[in-house]
Model the fold of this input.
Amino acid sequence: MYNPSVSGGNASTVAGSRLFLYEVQGLRQNAETDQMNNPIRKSGSVFITVPYARMNQEMQRITRMGGKIVSIRPIEEVGAASNAEPTPIAAPVVVPAEAVAPAETAPTQTNSKPMTQAAPKPGASVPVNLYKPNSPYVGKVLSNEPLVQEGGSGIVQHIKFDLSGGNLHYVEGQSIGIIPDGTDDKGKPHKLRLYSIASTRHGDDMDDKTVSLCVRQLEYKHPESGETVYGTCSTFLCGIEPGADVKITGPVGKEMLLPDDPDATVIMLATGTGIAPFRAYLWRMFKEAERKANPDYQFKGLAWLIFGVPYTPNILYKEELEQMEKEYAENFKLTYAISREQQNAEGGRMYIQHRVAEHADELWDLMQKPNTHTYMCGLKGMEDGIDEGMTVAAKKNNVDWIEFRKQMKKEHRWHVETY
Done:
């Protein structure tokens, strides 16, 4: 169902008059930016009753004051637990802690688990440009392994670099720059190319000393001569030997960061090597070693990867993806669009946009949740098709998809990195 507060509309329905109880910790009052009459506690939990129509605004205010939302519960659930009659409130107010029943006494309802806020836009704590083009980090190649199985098309490699000699660190969803050896046709050093990082912040070896990339060798026909042209940097990387030195810059990027919320819904739309940042997300969510290394981040939400490739042998990281799907069936959904082997409803090739269209109603419902993040990475050509599929679902709810998508972008819940 369409949620007006998500798309910025006014709540004029029955749902719009509902109240929710925010449990907040760590609030601090800023006299200059928050001229509020609400009392603020310096420690412990604060309970704030918020009308449905003001949920997003209140989330932003709490974040601005340094608060962390621990839980959000419908006020009627709290009332049921405390035998108190909820009172309609027109503006956010603080509820005394003693008036609220402890969370463990609330009635168990399968369809009413606490909601959580979408993560605020990343701030200064995210590492950026630790190494710049004029003074790159020089790391050694530790391994260079093929990812395309026999019968697949093209060359795609998983390349791991040693970071132990410097201070290059990163978080999931960022990119690094690679400066290939040699010079261009004008005799100048090659410019850097950016690649999405395919490993978690701990690296493939879980020692915080490596970074990995998923690189496809660019190959195309010259439009005039008809000659086969190979990408400079991708060819350099795909053919590089372990032990070789590589100039690395970065990290860069805040657009594709994974939210810290372990209850979030994370929708991932990928083609080809666009799987790179999603590999990092999924490893962080579901790999046993990662879960042990990150006790504060134990993913309990839903992750859904829709992955487009030409052939089954081109499903990058296939074995590990399917193992995670098997082990975490309630939390991870894996959907393939294999264009040269599967057919869409019209009998043509099955591309990622067709899978999105098939599941558009389910995706739409998920996107109504305030802690759902949608990520798109890969070929730019998939964007229009995905918009078309989601437009149909939005129209069923009398919503303009493009405007809804723009609102998700403003709320930092729509993330795109295409090329």
User: Anything to note?
Assistant: Residues 302 and 330 are 8 Å apart (CA to CA). The first strand starts at residue 19 and ends at 25. The chain is about 20% helix and 25% strand.
